[in-house]
Amino acid sequence: MTENSDFKALSIDTLPERLGSCSSMSEHIGADFSQWEVQEVGDGNLNLVFIVEGTLGKVIVKQALPYVRLVGDSWPLPLKRSYFEYHALKREEIRDPGRVPQVFHFDETQAIIIMEFLSPHVILRYALIEGRQLPRIAKDLGHFLARTLFRGSDLSMPQRERKDDLALFADNAEICDITECLVFSEPYYDAPRNRHTSPQLDTIVAELRADRDLKVAAQCLKHLFATNSETMLHGDLHSGSVMVTDNETRVIDPEFAFYGPMAFDIGMLLANFWMSYFSQAGHETDNDREHMRQYLLEVIADTWKEFKTEFTTLWRTERTGILYQKELFEDQGDTLGSEQALDQVLHKIWIDLQGFAGVEIHRRILGLAHNADFETITDLDKRATCETKALKLGRHLAVNCNLVCSIDEINALAERLEKELVT
Ligand code: SR1
Ligand code: MG
Known about the structure:
Blueprint: H1 15-19, H2 23-29, E1 37-40, E2 47-53, E3 58-64, E4 67-68, E5 72-76, H3 81-95, E6 103-107, E7 112-116, E8 122-123, H4 124-129, H5 137-151, H6 159-170, H7 173-182, H8 202-209, H9 212-227, E9 231-233, E10 242-244, E11 249-251, E12 258-260, H10 263-283, H11 290-317, H12 335-366, H13 372-375, H14 380-399, H15 407-419
Antiparallel strand pairs: 1-2, 2-3, 3-7, 4-5, 6-7, 8-10, 9-12, 10-11
Bound molecules: 5-S-methyl-5-thio-alpha-D-ribofuranose and magnesium ion.
5-S-methyl-5-thio-alpha-D-ribofuranose binds at residues 44-46, 68, 70, 178-179, 182, 236, 369.
C-alpha cells in the first residue's frame, strides 16, 4: 500500500459527477446522477460520510481524509485505513454474517467505500443518551464479539491464512499509534491534546496522574495491546460504532482493525456501557432514568454472558486452528483438559477486559476524544459529577482487575459509586 497523489476529497457538489459512472451506485440508487441528493453526515473524528439518495434508494459513501478530521491537516493520517476497513468488513461479514453493512464497492485510490444505507437504524450511543432500551444488543454484540474474536484467531484459522492476515493488518500502524497514544498514555500526563471538565475535575485529574499503580497498569495494558496479536479486532468498538433498531444490531466502522488481544474489543464496548450508565444522571429529569441504569447494568452482564456462551460453543465445535488442538484433548478422551484450557483462556480475557475498560473510560474524560454521553450534559457541575464516578470506576478496573471475580461485583461497585455524593 502506497499513498497516492490522485486522491481528491469528495464534496456534496462533486460527488454525483465523480461517482456517476460507478455501477454499484447506479445499481443501488439509479443511474441518473443528476437526480441524486447528497448529504454529508459524518460526525466521527476522521472521515467524510455521505448519504446519497437516488430514485431507487440510498447508499452510504464513506471517504477517508488524509488527516484527522477532528484536529485538521496538522495531523496527517494515511488514506490506507480505508483499505483496512474494507478488509475488516469482509472478514466480519464471513465470521458473523449479517452483522455489518453490506459493502457494494471499494475504491482504493480514492479511499472510498460504498455501502448499505442502514434505515431506520440510529447510532447506539445516541439511543442510550435518549434513554432508549434496545432489547437485542447484549445478545447480538456478545455473539459478534465471540464469533469475530474466535474465528479471527489461531483457535480457528488455518495457520498460513492467519499469518498472511497478520501481515496485511500490521500495516495499519498509524491507526494503532492513535490508540497507543490516546488511550494508554496521554490521559495519564498533561499531554497537549488533552482536555477535561475544568476546574471541576482538576483535583481528581491530578490525583490520577500522580497514581503510580494506575500508570503502571495502563502501561502493562499498552504492552499487551501492542504485542499480543492474537486475533483480528474491530479496534474501535464503542457505542458510536454500533447502529440499532429494536430488532437489529449492526456494527460499523472497523477502520481501527488490526491483530491484537481478544479482550480489547470487549473491554472497550463494556466501558462505553458503564460510561452511559454514569451519564444517565446528566440526562434525567425527575429521577426518571433508574430503569435505564438497571437496563445498562443488565446489558453489561448479559453481553459478557452471551460472549462466554458463544465462545464456549465455538471452542467445542470449531477449534480447528493450531491452538489447544483436539488431537491433544478430545481425541485422547480428555474433554476435561479442553474445558480446563477454555476456562483459562476465558479467565485471561476476563482480567484483561477490565483493564482495557478502565483506560477507555479514562481517555474519554481526560484525553483528546471525548464522547457525547458526557459532552452533551450542558450543566458542567452535573457533567463533572458523572465523570468523577466513571473515573473512579475506571481506576478500579485498571488497577484491581486481578482481584475482581465477577461482572456483578463491578456492577455493584458502579451502583455504589452512582449513589455516592461527589463534593
Ligand atoms: C484522532 S481519532 C480519535 C478517536 O476517534 C476514533 O473513533 C477512535 O476512537 C480514536 O481514538
Ligand atoms: Mg469510527
